[in-house]
């Protein structure tokens, strides 16, 4: 495998992931195969990719590589810069929906990384992905993952708890994935993640200001509150 290949010239997701890791972490082809090859092959081939097999990726994204986070940030920036090609490769999969779920589960740990910059970069990456999903008619699949039990909403809310200063960035992710579903988000899914009424109302309060200020969501937020659904 040619790890010096331009990321935009990769032909499938496995190649994309491996070349992006090599580029961001300055690894040779031999190092990539030693460190990543078997792991990524296993992730792409097994039917269990949605469970424990993401623990290795989650660990390095949350805790860094021996407590060093710069390679992780570089990698996430590489993915963000090539979000269009990244999503285009997802559309080539026979099962687009499950491919997207795999990608999201592989990357979502960045939201709750102990490192502020990793969490911030993860927010930027997911915003870029959501924009491409909208353009490539994949936002419906992305929304289904977002509201699932261990999906994006759960991680975005925990990102805000761990890094309060990133609330605006995290809410932008929420807005992009919920673009056509804000009513459903407020009336059902936020309640589902906050069985305690007080905690639910505190979360709503934290979301209100940036959502009211967004040109994309301010009218819908007003409609939601006028409907007295929350």
Keywords:
single chain, mainly alpha, 2 domains, 13 helices, 70% helix
Please tell me about this protein's structure.
Mean pLDDT is 81; it is low at 41-53. It is built from 13 helices and no strands. The chain has 2 domains: 7-180, no CATH class; 181-230, no CATH class. It has 230 residues and is mainly α. The radius of gyration is 18 Å and the shape is globular. α9 (152-162) packs antiparallel against α10 (167-177) and α10 crosses α12 (197-213). The longest helix has 20 residues, at 116-135. It has helices at 13-25, 29-45, 55-63, 70-81, 83-91, 96-107, 116-135, 139-146, 152-162, 167-177, 182-193, 197-213, 218-226.
